[in-house]
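Per reviewer request, we include the raw input and output of the structure prediction for the construct analysed in the revised manuscript.
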Amino acid sequence: IDLGTNPYLTRMVASNPDIYPSIFSRVFALKLVLVLGYLLSIVVIGGVWLANTPLEWMMLLICAFIHVGISFILLFRSVFQAFQAFGWDGIASVIDKISFLFVLSFLFSLPTLGIIVYSSSFLVVTFLSALFLCWLVVRKYGFSVLHFRRADLFASARMGFPFAVLFVLSSFNERIGQVLLAILSGDYESGLY
């Protein structure tokens, strides 16, 4: 949910830390707009075509909000990377997983552990981790007023777009070997690869 804005933020702030307040407010505002669009599209498109029962609706929404939380964690990690605070970036990369391991140790003591309890727990841990990282970024580097000006949003999306294309192309490049191997040799060999 970033259209390449996370690596764009990292690159720009790493090359000139003085522009952090203005660029972070623009990227954060764009992230909020993209999240809103993502959630609306998930509810409209995914809900109409994929969710037929209340359980499916609940799982669709939980998965969508987990994705939103992870997206914000990645945004805050890009700030740490931009300022070359790799220790904090390392902590940010595992904070939600380690926290979830502690929650799982409690959940496994329950007599029944359903998919909703498991998923909801992961959602809560992801959002608490994102809030903690938001607090940490604001405390260490500051925060400026968000600007939702259309020109700034489009400019940020346009500047991040090459990074998004690079991500898609590199993902395609990484997967094409496995797809070709499955076509040429079979699923077993592809699975081994």
